[in-house]
Structures
1.
Amino acid sequence: MTGNRSVDEFRDDLLKHIASGSSPALDVWSIPTVGLTEKECRSFSIIRAMRALTYPENPDIREAASFELEVSRAAAKAMGKWTSGIIVPHDILGLALNTSKGGVAPGNIGGYRVDADYTRRHCATTASPCALVH
């Protein structure tokens, strides 16, 4: 934030700007594919890309993220844009996150389980709401 605006003033201005429709949201379908194979998509690491952005002066980190940076440049070129950040192409965005071939193991439906007994016993003795997540 710049200037002497409060958080509330900034939020109000931001909401007015969003409501005006002057800057449409990015349509993820407009992000091009760059022709990556499934194996290449799976080897893409957003963590390596973020490290390269965080430590641009470190040649080892940039070398480790060379694939991610190359993919981002190809996506930017396909979009006709230049960016100082990372563009993740639709090849990767469209890849299913759940790669399990056998489905869900018996008794495991995924997600998190909250232990209700622990919550009742423990939270009754504390002032803040809490839950044990497994």
Note: Confidence is low (pLDDT under 50) at residues 108-120, 126-134.
2.
Amino acid sequence: MKFDSSYKYIKEKESNNTWINMLSTFRNTNGNIISRIKKFIDLPQYAINKTNMCIRRDYYLFEFLRIFGINPLRADYYAKYTLVVGSQSSIGQAVISELKERNIHYLTVNNSALLDFTDKTLKTVLDFVQINSIIICDTTNSYRHSDHNVSKYINKYDTKLIKGIVSLAQNLNANITFIKLPYANHLTNLLSQHKNIKVIEIPYFIDKEIYFDPRNVFIHSISECNIEHHTTIDLDVDSNISSLTSNEIGKYILDKIQLSDNIQLPESEFITIRDLLEVLKSKCSILIHSDSYQRNHKPIQEIPKVFADFLNYTLEIPQDPYLSIVVVGRHDGFSKGFENRAQNFLDVIGNLSHHAPLASFEIVFVDYATPIERKPLCKVFKIPKILMNRTRFISVPQEYHYNLTEKLHTKSSFFEYIAKNIGIRRSKGQFILTTNPDNFYSVDFFESIARRELNDGILYRSHRWSLNENSSLTKSDIFDVINRPGQLKKRQDVRARCPTDISKTVWFADKESIEKESFPCGAGDFLMMSRDMWFAIGGFDEYPGNMNVDALFLGRMMKFVPGYVRNLMRAPIVHQYHVRQNIFRPLVSEHKKKMSDYACSAMCKEIQKYETDSWGIGDAVFNETII
């Protein structure tokens, strides 16, 4: 890799937050940086497109390697790499452990649903390193809590995934290995169509280190039983579980790939899922999605000691939340029916936590400028018992709002996005979702949180659906519909807020992509990325307005020099109907032009005056109530 001369300075000042190193503002403040094209003095530190005078972001695409777990400033570009797809699964972890043991360089894709492997930009990024092997460890495509027939959705997804990876492998001239657990029997015909895919079949195995992996059904279910005393099983109960360890599985897979196809699995003890469930049934309630479970079965007399010890494993959940859910509001009738909608929101989150007990999260509720004579929000809502000790209310006194109106020269009655910045700044999660307490979410989304499959370098969004004014759907009805894939579009009382045919994953690496595919509508209802990325970008623009600040944020993300990647999650959200109150909430004028400015030069001169290191009123200490 031949680096731009500016990277000498970047490496000297390299931040521990890898996403800060991608920022234009980080580079603008790091000394006398030399330009490739010196005559373009407006952007002296960047390569410039002579046609539109914008940054040549394609020069910096290699920096996207961070998404695959590689520091592009210190990577070995002469080494051979293995791409591990499904790296967050127990199989993926076993493979990575063995790759480390053998000093083999690797890249990771923790969630196979994250990327479109046929995408040209993705292929360009991966082409910067020499990938000679791709190992598919997990497809993570189940809908564990849907009683609807989802097989057609799963098959459609798996077909696209396999074809995409085959296309990528041909482009990279790499070998493909598919690690096939018993749950993937539906892929047999599909895999047989691709003769260049090596298939290695392995049994389910015990691994108490990866209790977030729903494919590792026993530890995932044992963990759910420990926490909530109930679990769901959607696998063939007559499948065997092996006593093999993850280390033995990892070694077997790599030996099979590198040495000989004749290598056999080490000997181990076995027990069926059915037999294990008979033991688990005494500890918790189990919902079993399996046609074969009702068959007559003679229970095992005594389970082997290795499995008995495993069943007694005590789960230790990390203390810090994986996800912070940030919402804002105040108690003064500023939005008619707000309190009722927010109570519904809390009730639904509680229900979701019950269905996905391994989902680690906190709710950060910013009570922005509630009048002193009114009850604070922390005393307004009835918090579900399951949300106790993970619901935090941050109280922002009115005086801070008055100070902001004076500072920003506006009469705005509510600064929604500055309030969200206050919540972001004080969140504890590894990932942070900014959303609104008008929304309902699906179990599928909470299961993705339970699987801990989010990528540190991706901006996540979701399809928003809105209830019509005359909708008679209850909370229970909405919960049922949102958890049945494909059902929302069939309803007459629900409508799509935005187009539903937009690209699932987009690499925003030029001005044209922002203008064509950013789809700003409804962005403020669901924006999620890692804490490191939020802190690198500095939250939302602290502009004296509300409307279109969320759209402007999609341009603001172009402060990252190579651009950014957006993933549209398959889990939708449903927005509760409410009348818009006629309150003074100014909008961002010409927001599309400002987005284009960000996309062109990684900055927006009209917005720069609002930039501050203390975004989210970072120098203030607010009262906090934990319920």
Note: The first strand starts at residue 80 and ends at 85.
3.
Amino acid sequence: MEYIVNSDFSTGKLDPWRPVAGSTIEIGEEDGRYHAVLGDSDKLNQNVRIADVQPRRFLLSVELKVINGTEEDKGQVHLLWSSNALFRTYYPAVSDDWATTTFDLFVSNLATTNNIEVLVEPRFAKEVLVGSVSLRDERRRRH
């Protein structure tokens, strides 16, 4: 099951994603695909509600592309996951072509609130395009 709403920005709008702390994030389009455009110090956030709460495995994926970045710049994107008071930081692969990075995420606590945040480091002076963010439940259901 997919938990991120508007995970690929296909609505052409940001909602229910929220810019954080003065970030000015726009939606762009390239070859008929929408994406969020993040610049220096921008943060993009979405709260995730998971009703059937129990320990389980998730796959957390993010598709990114850097515009006019250098090799030093490409490691300056963080993907933050918080569940109750537990925070985890991931460093997805970033290049000047669209690249998708997937992380295994095992949630062992009984979480009631979950949060996804894409963060571009303050010293990162280029643009980062976010094509999609996905959080999928990988629990196998019994028939």
Note: DSSP finds no helices and ten strands in the chain.
4.
Amino acid sequence: MKLWEKMVSRILDEDISIEIQEPDLVIRRNGTYSVIRYIVASEVDYSVLEIDEAKLRSIIESYSSLLDKLPEASEVKVVKIGLDLDKFLKRLMNEMLNLKATIDVVEEPHVREKNRVKLEILRNIYDTILKGKKLTQLILVFKIRDSGRDLSEVKKRLSVTSSIVINVLRNEFGVVAREADADDIRNIVKYEIGLEPVIRGKSIVLDSDRLGCLAPIPRFKKPRYNEDSVILGSDLETGWVVELPLKILDKHILVLGPTGRGKTTFLASLIESLITMSNIRVFGIDFKGDLVSLLNGILDIVKPCDYPINVFVKPDVFDNIEWFTSVADALSNVLGLDKDFVMEILVKNRSGGGVKVDEDVLKKKLLLFSNISELVMVEPKYSDLVKLMEKNIVMNMDGYGSSFQNLYASLLIHIYRKTVVSRTSSNTPRSVIVIDEAWRVSKLKGLVELVKEGRSRGVGVILASQNPSDIPREIVENTNMVVMFGSINEDYQKDAQKILGVPAVIAKKLSYLGVGEALVINALNPHYVVLKVRPPVKLLSR
């Protein structure tokens, strides 16, 4: 009996039989065989230089599946050992020179190709070292355990599991592994009982970032899923989901980016999640009809013609001065009219408890309103409009003139603010208003007031626009989250730094973001997240 075998017997103080039957360590005690099958890594595949979101998900799923298939008490052992970088580089360069020489003289095409691939792998390692990336040398060992009275049956079961482990390591992790020989087993056991300071055997060298996948221990902490949140997409740098806690929704969100980068898709996905995964009421304003095309069937779609507004007829929830002020704010924002001038017209035409249209005055002064006549001559339906704000809806403004769109939307925001904010309390469902192409109404005083009041009344505001400069500073300062899509435009990136306070090194990332990718900036979290937007179901089904 060898020394290490005697030590094991003495430690256990039992009459046992220990024998190496490669690739197994077989322990016989009281007529039962306990067998450990050893698998060791021999080489790492460097043909995959980066792990994208899909690859990371595959690694996690594969590892979970692998653990499920292992018998109880099986182990995965990762042992870090010292790496002499100078010696490693010299050995690497010699091997590369030998491979080049072999490729030049060998005649068989398959041998030449095999050596060419190996040379490319070594070049990748060499480039990694030159770039200053950290390397880790380690020994990776799988110990698969099984037991039973029939040794041959135990070995058969271990062989099946061993084959699965080796295939998964090769295909999913890029690690070439093999079943251990007698020397491997002897060295591992000596290390484990303290006879050797390190495991003597074949080691692998890999960049430290990939060590987490072999362990596999992610470099980033996996967030816990919060039931009181909705999913925005996934983090491109870690692969984990990015969530929006509903409790910060009333702290408002800005969605910024050039046309075609994914703003509307993000809004549709967010609205879809809010409606299906929470009791938050959503009121949307869609100027171009793009949002409607992704949400039809999820919520009610309505048009301004079904819910007319008249600038000279106040809703019951307003008093006269409140309505006049709101109309003046809207007209000055849309048509550039002086607020005092608008107030003069409205006050002169006031009659009794309401407002009466004076035809003589209109002939002279309301010619300025010719392009928005639909909002002057119609009979309003305010009671229906107020009831509408208790539902999940999107107002589709597509097909109307721009002046009408802007004025109707401006008045709609004032009515929403007066109706929803005034009745919102801790006992009523929270609400959110979503405005695509918000630059059309962003200078509206009523919108600024809605943003300020909404923070304390449980009403969230989500604005989407093309540039940071479209949004007034008062709104930016009262907004906690910005979702900023990519652009190579330098002015866009400078605005991100100047207006939003994004560091220059982070703003540069905007140049490299693809369609559907955005930088998430959260005032409550110093970590900037690179988001891959989750498409809405309607888009996925196309």
Note: The radius of gyration is 34 Å.
